[in-house]
Amino acid sequence: MGCTQSRFFQTPLSPLSSATSADSELVLLPPTRPTETHRTKSKARASSKSATDRSPKKKRTPTKRNAPSEKLDTNHEKIPQCTEKQQVVPLHLAATKNSGTPSMSRHETPRLSTTPFNATPRDDGPQWTLLIDLVATLQASGYPRAWNKEAKTLTKLFDPILASRGLYKNLLEHTGDEAQLIIEALQWLLVSHPSLGKEGRRRCAYLQALVRLGGKCEMIPQSYRRDFQIEDRVILFQSPIVDIYKTGQPGRWVCLKQYRVNPKVTVDSAKKLSIREAIFWFNHKHDNVLPFLGVVETRSAFYLVSPYFEFGTLADYLKTSPAVNRGLLVRDVTSGLEYFHSHNFVHADIKPQNIFMHVSGRAVLADLGLSRLSDSNILSWPSVQTIDPQLAPGIFPWLAPEILALTDIIESDKNARLVVFTFASDVYALGGVIYEVFTGLRPFNDFSIKKIVHGVPEGARPQKPKNPDAAAYTLCGLTDDIWKVIEQCWHGDPKARPTAKDLLQEPFFVNLQDGRPPIRYES
């Protein structure tokens, strides 16, 4: 009955660890070593310099020097933005778009500056040779676990790069061994740096740089990789976007997530999606977030590995255990969401099908495929996502009205539309989860997609059950206080919705008695 999990997938291995236990069937792939290419390049540069010094000096024709690296400030025009065609303004900001800085909402990340952290771009550009040589040396000697002088030097090299558009572009132009070295260094800093392990704009900048470079080069840190033989696979879940498999052996089951290749998703696109999710997932660990166990890559497939939970999803669990304390489950989900939001991270796909149940009776959030960093001012790709009704039909009951108002997919000639997910849209979706948990009904179960798209922005919402003998009251435990919370989450104005942190202070959450055992994974 209990949920079991592979011994060799007990917990995600540290990116600083290169050893495995003696009885483990899991073997990390060897880390990338500095190649002769780096040494050869350094010697060539030195040789070239010597030759230049010995040669007769020639009069040089004055040339126009490169403009100094642009320092970012509060001028929004200097921030990399999506193109005019892609630019999407959230509905709740549209009214203030032309009247200066939009008014702040408790859901929004404070804009301290458009520079992601206190770093001044150097006019002469970064010392790329020093950067590559340093990360190559660290890689060869093994990254230390403790913060040291080399790490401090490394951040001094990275900080101005991530604070300048020009230098940032140069960073993303790296390929091959050098790109892999930079990827390893960024991941190490995210784990070992005293401040990068916490929330903040600086962490966002480093994490987004890792995501962008990894996606562009189709590379991941070597510490993510797991090497084991995939034998029999059993399909657990299929959608137009992903396949979820169960594999392993009794007592050692794990799940494999694979993005599907279809006419709209190429092999390269599927791999980039997997890499993006892997990096976000690895760098977000919480008791109420499904653990990330690593990546398994074969010649024909790229899998994201996670524990196998026999109790299945929240929706499955409520069917088999209807008398469970539902308030505790909702608090679990809210705690996981609050963790994401405290790290400037928007989940963007909150629904019972993406919430899994541990054998301890605790709920964990999963599926970061649509997630994104909330701070779009940091040098990053546009803060938009695409919604394709053919690929993600099940997401519409959970979409906030401001999202649906922007999609307008029914009248559009295009299938996919650009939308903006926010903390507030996550909270709206959470309201739908609370509704389903305490009523046993799926939101808008009798609505078509077209009716949802047109009705929700106009104020349509699921109604509170009127019959006092309904299962919502007699079995699920719905109360007036809980319904009030649901309505707050479903507020039409995103700024009027509570935050996940606010919800955790609600009396019916605070007063819950929790006797469940903590989550532990078998060794």
Walk me through what this model shows.
The protein is an alpha+beta fold and 523 residues long. It folds into 3 domains: 103 residues, no CATH class; 84 residues, 2-Layer Sandwich (Phosphorylase Kinase, domain 1); 197 residues, Orthogonal Bundle (Transferase(Phosphotransferase), domain 1). The chain is built from 17 helices and 11 strands. Strands 1-2-3-5-4 form a 5-stranded antiparallel beta sheet, with helices on one face. The chain has a two-stranded antiparallel ribbon with strand order 6-9. Strands 7-8 form a two-stranded antiparallel sheet. Helix 3 packs across helix 4 and helix 12 runs antiparallel to helix 15. It starts with 35 loop residues before the first helix and ends in a 13-residue tail after the last helix. 40% of the residues are buried. The N terminus is likely disordered. Pfam families: Pkinase. Keywords: Kinase, Transferase. InterPro entries: Kinase-like_dom_sf, Prot_kinase_dom, Ser/Thr_kinase_AS, Ser_Thr_protein_kinase. This is Kinase-like protein. GO terms for molecular function: ATP binding; protein kinase activity.
